[in-house]
Amino acid sequence: MTEARTETRTQTQRPPLYKVILLNDDYTPMDYVVRVLVDFFRKSPAQATRIMMAVHQEGSGVCGVYPFEVAETKVHQVNSDARQHGFPLKCIMEAE
């Protein structure tokens, strides 16, 4: 008698990703926004300047795309740092 074997394959799903976005305001200095992008998002100064200009000219700029927990942490870090420095800079996240 032969035994029938079935192979079970499990597929791991990638976690949903979220965009972390900086929103423009009229009070936060551009150099502070560049510093935030370099410090919290590990962008090069050139990348940070490009994103900062998008925030300034278009009203918002994507800083990066991350899993939920990472995106949530980055949003909290940026918003807390901005408040500590007295700036109204706002960082949000949205599903990709």
TrEMBL record:
UniProt keyword annotations, A-Z: Hydrolase, Protease
GO molecular function, one term: peptidase activity
Pfam families noted in UniProt: ClpS (PF02617)
Hydrolase keyword on record: yes
Keyword presence, Chaperone: no
GO biological process: protein catabolic process; proteolysis
Residues covered by the Adaptor protein ClpS core domain: 14-91
Oligomeric and partner information: Binds to the N-terminal domain of the chaperone ClpA.
Entry's family note: Belongs to the ClpS family.
Stated role: Involved in the modulation of the specificity of the ClpAP-mediated ATP-dependent protein degradation.
Entry protein name: ATP-dependent Clp protease adapter protein ClpS
Organism: Deinococcus cellulosilyticus (strain DSM 18568 / NBRC 106333 / KACC 11606 / 5516J-15)
Taxonomic path: Bacteria, Thermotogati, Deinococcota, Deinococci, Deinococcales
